[in-house]
Each structure stands twice: as structure tokens, then as C-alpha cells.
Amino acid sequence: MRKSYRVKKEADFQLVFEQHHSVANKMFIVYTMTREQPTHFRLGISISKKVGLRGHERVWVKRRIRQSVLEFKPKMRSDIDILVIARPAAHDQDMAIIKKNLEHVFKLANVFVDEETE
Known about the structure:
InterPro entries: Ribosomal_Su5_D2-typ_SF, Ribsml_uS5_D2-typ_fold_subgr, RNase_P. By secondary structure, this protein is of the alpha+beta class. The protein has three helices and four strands. The chain has a four-stranded mixed sheet, with helices on both faces.
């Protein structure tokens, strides 16, 4: 995923947290914020040590989240910043389960473009 598609700076993370709309399920918490320059969505991912003590375990989960978002990219709105926070239940799950749970929480957060309006 390109760096322009990522929320990287601490100030950007804090802005999304302060002006957020959040939803959650058993594996993920998702914060969303509408932006004024709707060129494309931006994604931030946070994985705490509660998910996995070793760094490679956290990177494993982060890669699967990023790959799932890439697969959802054509359906996603372009005017939002998204923060995904993984919960400990995401540890040791396979790609299909992570993708299914991420899709569920994205639907709750209204991240996808409505098919009826196209």
C-alpha cells in the first residue's frame, strides 16, 4: 500500500481519535473521520503488545489487515481516514477470518460505497 494511503503522523492519529466515529467487533476497533480532500482514503493500523508480545506476531496481523484493505479498496469511500486497532482476538487467526471480521466492522462504520448509488 502506498505511503500516501497511510495515516502515519501522530498528529493525524490524534485528529481522527478526537473527531471520531467508532465501531467495534470482537477483533477490531475502527475509527473513521471524514476529510475535505477526498482524493482517496487513508488507513492507519495500530497493534498493541496485547495482541502479540513479539514484533513478528504484530507485523503478521498488520500485513493481513493491510492485504484485506487492499482487496476492499474498489468498494471503499474516498473521503475518509480510517484507523484500525486490533484486539487480542486477532492473534493467530487465518486470513479468511481476519478479512471477514474486518469487512463486518467496515460495514458497521459505513466505509463502503453504497452499491445502489452507483
